[in-house]
């Protein structure tokens, strides 16, 4: 039996290695919050029609088996770094292509970046960072408000209801009392 922890609610999810597919991937939904959780394990390759191994070959094969590890994402799209303050601790959220919904963590919120905070001025779905590629294949990041009750600020400027703002590495934006920095490292 193996166990993984849900990144959203922290619930422990147990699974058997027999549930891992031939690519070493195991995907399930958290029974507590419903978040889709996936893990990729390194597995030893097995051929379908394999002759029995001699004792020496069997020992060599067992020595070469790699222990399971979580795979790293194939491409880095940057991350959001939540700056620690009196409402919450420092948190980091990796970004993916498409819309990355940002908001306050709760059992009923279904956002990609669920910030664990006591900040009452942050909405459950406060804003969105869209990651896409331009014509030259470079990544671009566009921030828009949720719409939220308190608004989304870039620097000291409030984003309008339908306004979109291109943000870059190091851009600081604020949701209620929560400050976030886009980091492309």
From TrEMBL:
Domain FHA: 100-159
N-terminal signal peptide: none
Protein name from the UniProt record: FHA domain-containing protein
Organism in which the protein naturally occurs: Hallella mizrahii
Phylogenetic classification of the source organism: Bacteria, Pseudomonadati, Bacteroidota, Bacteroidia, Bacteroidales
């Amino acid at each position: 039996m193996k166990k993984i922890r849900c990144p959203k609610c922290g619930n422990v999810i147990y699974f058997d290695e027999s549930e891992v597919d031939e690519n070493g991937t195991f995907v399930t939904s958290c029974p507590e919050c419903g978040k889709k959780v996936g893990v990729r394990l390194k597995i030893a390759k097995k051929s379908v029609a394999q002759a029995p191994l001699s004792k020496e070959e069997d020992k060599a094969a067992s020595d070469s088996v790699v222990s399971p590890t979580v795979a790293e994402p194939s491409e880095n799209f940057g991350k959001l770094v939540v700056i620690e303050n009196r409402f919450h601790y420092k948190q980091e959220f990796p970004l993916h292509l498409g819309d990355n919904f940002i908001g306050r963590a709760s059992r009923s919120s279904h956002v990609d970046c669920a910030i664990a905070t006591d900040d009452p001025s942050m909405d459950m779905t406060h804003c969105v960072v869209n990651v896409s590629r331009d014509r030259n294949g470079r990544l671009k990041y566009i921030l828009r408000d949720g719409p939220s009750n308190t608004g989304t600020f870039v620097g000291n400027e409030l984003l309008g209801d339908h306004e979109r703002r291109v943000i870059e590495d190091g851009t600081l934006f604020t949701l209620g009392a929560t400050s976030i920095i886009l980091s492309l490292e």
